[in-house]
Design a protein that fits this description.
It comes from Membranihabitans marinus. This protein is α/β, with parallel strands linked by helices. It contains 10 helices and 14 strands. The chain has 2 domains: 140 residues, NAD(P)-binding Rossmann-like Domain (Rossmann fold), CATH 3.40.50.720; 166 residues, L-2-Hydroxyisocaproate Dehydrogenase, Chain A, domain 2 (Alpha-Beta Complex). The longest helix has 26 residues. 1,4-dihydronicotinamide adenine dinucleotide (NAI) binds next to helix 1 and helix 4.
Length: 311
């Protein structure tokens, strides 16, 4: 059984800890935040559900990195969320400093953890954690694709009046408006989605998915947390269980899809070693063009990050 640290006890971090505790698959969850009392309070509140919800995962809140010692998996959610009118990329100057500081502190107390980054702008914050940690590429990756496909699947389930469980889909690219949902790889209980829905309606759902995060920011004044928290917890679960599951995740590309030295969303198999395998799909010309557009966008944000680091 494993020890998991969640950094950031805000909306997303507290949800990751809460969902993980309910899954009852790890020994201990440490919830760390610079606001120590907030972390302690949310951890205590979560733990007090245990008799009702029947779980025994211990959960502790703290601001002290010593408590994170020996973590197997670390989920980084620390950082500011966007407000209406902002893009995820607008968060870079604040969140890069936070993610780099958190990564350094984590590595001071845990030797070889698997790091899952959630903070935005996701693809570049994952790159920052990778470079700063010096960990191998299979041990540092980001959560985005599970959330983005969940939104796509949920929209399709509503439209088709079917169970979201029966919808399977692949989505690639950066975690932003250039993400690439792939209708050609979308099925409803094994049936190609294109046989179940009109093209125009599907196009509308793809467009809504791409702006799915922004839709929620518009409604709530801050970004989402229930689905993002559940998505990160699902990644932890599949690493701990090592059950061979395949999800779209933001990973380091080292020649796959003809791309190098960039973090981007692609389908991967997760396992106890982190990324077990990157799956290379045979994309058609149009899909590849969309992926390259997304790559170009993420490279632009990476350049901003690199300039910040050189100052
Ligand atoms: N990858 C994805 O799909 C998603 C990413 N996000 C991102 O996750 C991040 C967190 O979002 P929320 O939880 O809604 O924000 P929040 O404001 O509710 O929580 C953030 C927490 O981070 C803490 N924090 C700040 N600096 C810290 C540091 N140096 N060390 C430890 N803790 C620190 C704050 O005290 C706060 O409690 C944002 O950057 C947001 O954009 C949110 C949803 C989905
Ligand atoms: O939209 C945001 O800023 C937060 C996020 O990444 C998401 O919910 O997809």
């Amino acid at each position: 059984m494993s020890k998991v640290t969640v950094v950031g006890a805000g909306n997303v971090g507290a949800t990751v800890a809460n969902v993980l505790a309910h899954k009852d698959i790890v020994n201990e969850v440490v919830l760390l935040d610079i606001q120590g009392d907030l972390a302690r309070g949310k951890a205590l509140d979560t733990w007090q559900q245990s008799p009702i919800e029947s779980f025994s995962t211990r959960i502790k809140g703290t601001e002290d990195y010593k408590e994170t010692a020996g973590s197997d998996i670390v989920v980084i959610t620390a950082g500011v969320p966007r407000k209406p009118g902002m893009s995820r990329d607008d968060l870079i100057s604040t969140n890069a400093k936070i993610v780099n500081a958190v990564t350094t502190s984590i590595l001071e107390h845990s030797e070889n953890p698997t790091i899952i980054v959630v903070s935005n702008p996701l693809d570049v914050m994952t790159y920052a954690a990778y470079v700063n940690s010096g960990l191998p590429k299979n041990k540092v990756f980001g959560m985005a694709g599970i959330l983005d496909t969940a939104r796509y699947r949920a929209f399709l389930a509503t439209e088709l009046e079917v169970s979201p469980r029966d919808i399977q889909a692949v989505l690639m690219g950066g975690h932003g408006d250039t993400m690439v949902p792939l209708p050609r790889y979308t099925t409803v209980a094994g049936i190609p989605v294109t046989e179940m829905i009109e093209e125009e309606v599907l196009d509308g759902i793809v467009a809504r998915t791409k702006k799915g995060g922004g839709e929620l920011v518009g409604l709530m004044g801050t970004s989402a947390w229930y689905a993002p928290g559940a998505a990160a917890a699902q990644m932890v679960e599949s690493i701990v269980k090592d059950d061979g599951r395949i999800f779209p995740c933001c990973v380091y590309l080292d020649g796959e899809y003809g791309m190098e030295d960039i973090f981007l969303g692609v389908p991967v198999q997760l396992g106890k070693e982190g990324i077990k395998k990157v799956i290379e799909l045979d994309l058609n010309e149009e899909e590849m063009e969309l992926l390259q557009e997304s790559e170009n966008h993420v490279r632009g944000v990476m350049d901003t990050y690199k300039e910040m680091q050189n100052k």
